[in-house]
Amino acid sequence: MPAHIAASVRIAVVIPSYKVRRHILGVIDAVGPEVERIYVVDDRCPDDSGRFVEENCKDPRVVVLRHEANQGVGGAVMTGYRAAAADGFGVAVKIDGDGQMDPALLPMFVAPILDGRADYTKGNRFYDLSQIQRMPKIRLIGNAGLSILSKLSTGYWNTFDPTNGYTAIDTRLVAHLPLQRISRRYFFETDILFRLNIARAAVMDIPMDAVYADEESNLKISKIFGEFLGKHIRNFCKRIFYNYFLRDMSAASLELAFGAALIAFGLVYGSWQWAASMRLGVATPAGSVMLAALPVIVGLQFLLAFVSYDVSSVPSRAIAPLLPKKNHRAD
Length: 331
Prior knowledge:
Blueprint: H1 3-6, E1 11-17, H2 24-30, E2 37-42, H3 49-56, E3 62-66, H4 72-86, E4 91-94, H5 106-114, E5 120-124, H6 129-132, H7 137-154, E6 167-170, H8 188-198, E7 203-207, H9 221-246, H10 251-280, H11 286-312
Parallel strand pairs: 1-2, 1-4, 2-3, 5-7
Antiparallel strand pairs: 4-6, 5-6
Helix pairs in contact: 7-9, 8-9, 10-11
């Protein structure tokens, strides 16, 4: 980390705590001296991990926050973000308490934010191909599929591994994000990327290796894929509407509108002609076939041009330094 910048920026770590009693003390012990505060958020843990940390951890940096009811990993992280922002910390790093994330990597996640190159950083376990073989096959396939959906719904075509929870955020963004609307459960990591894109924040992937030992992940991709698919579709529609029609309009907006309209016309007209031909038992005239096919072909060209524009417009400039000061919202 650049020493001249790091000296003026306070760093906090947020650790959601739910069924991680076996590993959390080791995670806390591994957090380096560059971190001034460690927020352990007890998300109504059935093991009472908050009290366990208070009784067994002697690190003076640790502050235990508690939820009256379980809110999920997203809710725990939002609580930590609010606390870090309210206490004047410049960067908040989220690390899981199950031992899968190496706290020694923290400077790599913080450096792009301190340098003004990013507003938000996240881990990417797919960067080093030699390490991918260590990942359980179901996680590998599931994460690859979710990554493709995430690119579409969040607009960050340059990121991968959306369920990776090792992240860091410039806390100046916290007051400008609708924290109360961000998903509280396991869709949190992807949902916050969607919100960051709406804010036009710069996001950067950080290569990392995951640690798979005796921990048991609470995230079962086979169980949440259907739920995630629906939420991805919802966020994709919202992002397109917000970015291309509500907040701004460009040539890409027209390409999307005309492309969708032409394809819809071609499919509807072609289906009607096919049904009529089947009913009458005659071949469809060549002119009718062309009248149905041509709009679809042209419409696809418009949509490809729109996708190309969308890919090229991924936010690349950090916006946190440009944001007006704003009181943090308690909601």
